[in-house]
Design brief:
Length: 195
C-alpha cells in the first residue's frame, strides 16, 4: 500500500474514532432509558431509600399538583417535625399525604360556610375535637406533632396501607382519598428529607 493511501485510511479511521469518542457517549446517554425510581441528589446528601417510602405500593390512581413556595415550606415543616419526633421517612410520607388530602399543604384558617365544622390548618384538625387551639393547629410544627402523636398510637401503622393509617388518625368521611397522594408525598420526602 502506498504512503498516500495509508495516510488517507489512517486519517479516516482517526476521524471516525474521534467522532465516536465525542459523539458516542452523548448519543448513548440520549438513547438510554430513564428510570423514574432513581432520585438524583447532590453527592454530599445521602439517598433516601425509596422502598422505605412506599413499602406496600400505591393504591389506585395518583394525583399530583404543582406546589407553591408556601406549600414547599409546609412540606419541609412536616419533615422537620417528623424528625424531631424521632420518626422515620415513612411517617413523613403518611403525614404529607394526609396534609395533601386535607388542605393541599396549605395552612387553612376558618373557611366560613365552606368550613367542615371548625377544621383548620394543614391537617384540618378541630379544636372542638381536642386537637388544640386555633393558634396551635394552624402552626405547622404543632399540627404535625399532634398528627404524629395520633399515628404513634395506631398499633402496626408501619404495616398498614397509607390510607388506613391516615384514616385511623383522621377519622375522615372519605377514608380512601388519602391513597391518591402517596406517590407525590414519597417524592417530596425523597427530595426534602436530607435538604
Amino acid at each position: 500500500m502506498n504512503t498516500i493511501m495509508r495516510k488517507g485510511v489512517l486519517g479516516v479511521a482517526g476521524l471516525a474514532f474521534a467522532g465516536g469518542v465525542f459523539a458516542g457517549p452523548v448519543a448513548a446517554q440520549a438513547a438510554a432509558p430513564v428510570d423514574a425510581s432513581v432520585v438524583t441528589v447532590r453527592a454530599d446528601k445521602p439517598v433516601v431509600d425509596k422502598a422505605k417510602l412506599i413499602p406496600h405500593g400505591v393504591q389506585g390512581e395518583q394525583s399530583r399538583i404543582d406546589l407553591s413556595d408556601e406549600q414547599v415550606a409546609n412540606t419541609k415543616s412536616i419533615i422537620a417535625a417528623t424528625k424531631k419526633a424521632g420518626m422515620d421517612e415513612r411517617a413523613a410520607v403518611v403525614s404529607i399525604a394526609t396534609a395533601l388530602q386535607e388542605s393541599k399543604l396549605e395552612n387553612l384558617g376558618h373557611l366560613g360556610d365552606r368550613n367542615d365544622h371548625d377544621s383548620q390548618g394543614l391537617f384540618q384538625q378541630r379544636p372542638s375535637s381536642g386537637w388544640g387551639t386555633v393558634e396551635q393547629i394552624t402552626d405547622a410544627q404543632y399540627a404535625t406533632t399532634a398528627f404524629l402523636k395520633g399515628l404513634k398510637q395506631v398499633d402496626g401503622w408501619q404495616d398498614m396501607p397509607l390510607t388506613e393509617a391516615a384514616q385511623t388518625v383522621q377519622v375522615s368521611a372519605y377514608p380512601d382519598h388519602y391513597a391518591q397522594w402517596e406517590q407525590l408525598a414519597a417524592d417530596l420526602v425523597a427530595e426534602h428529607w436530607n435538604s
